[in-house]
Amino acid sequence: MAVLGLGCAVSHPRISHISGLKSKRRRNLVIKAEIIFVNGDEAKKLVNEEGYKIIDVRDKTQFERAHIKSCYHIPLFIENNDNDLGTIIKRTVHNNFSGLFFGLPFTKPNPDFVTSVKKELPLDSKILLICQEGLRSTAAANKLEREGFENLSCIVSGLQSLKPGTFESVGKMELENAGKAGLVTVQGKISAVLGTVLICAFLFIQFFPEQAEKLLQMNPVS
User: Fold this and answer.
1) What's the whole-model pTM score?
2) Three-class SS string for 76-95?
């Protein structure tokens, strides 16, 4: 059997000193994955027709209120129960503002996020990342893209933008409302009640002016 030997001469790059110029170094081309952003209907097609797996990156509180059935829950942020002085002060301020008014838990980045995803899914998996408003899922996608995941997608504006019934869900709330909590929701209900009372009062004055005038005479405004 004849073996053809191919000779290859390797030459070292030369440095040109003419006019103070240096030879350019070759750069390795890195092909980066493209994160796809979709709306609710498109996301449903990715899951049902293309086999995308759903990872919910919201915190435990929002996940328990409502989540898509048969999804992975791997939070990007976890509850911060650290007891150093700085954290205690931050947690106290948070709980008296964001926690009180918006029902948001005091959290910190999940150091095991990427590791947890790798345990559940291989790098070539098709993954749909979801959160409530679209910010955390985008941040999570960027993290996974840097780790070598190639088929990543996110819902624009998150679960809050979904039409009711887009996905089969589990929990006591609709998916699009899972981010609503705290005094804001109570204030909303109070405002709705007050608005209804004012509308009823206006209609009463319009359709029953004589009775309304008698009521005002019985309770004169000082």
Assistant:
1) 0.66
2) CEEECCCCCHHHHHHHHHHH
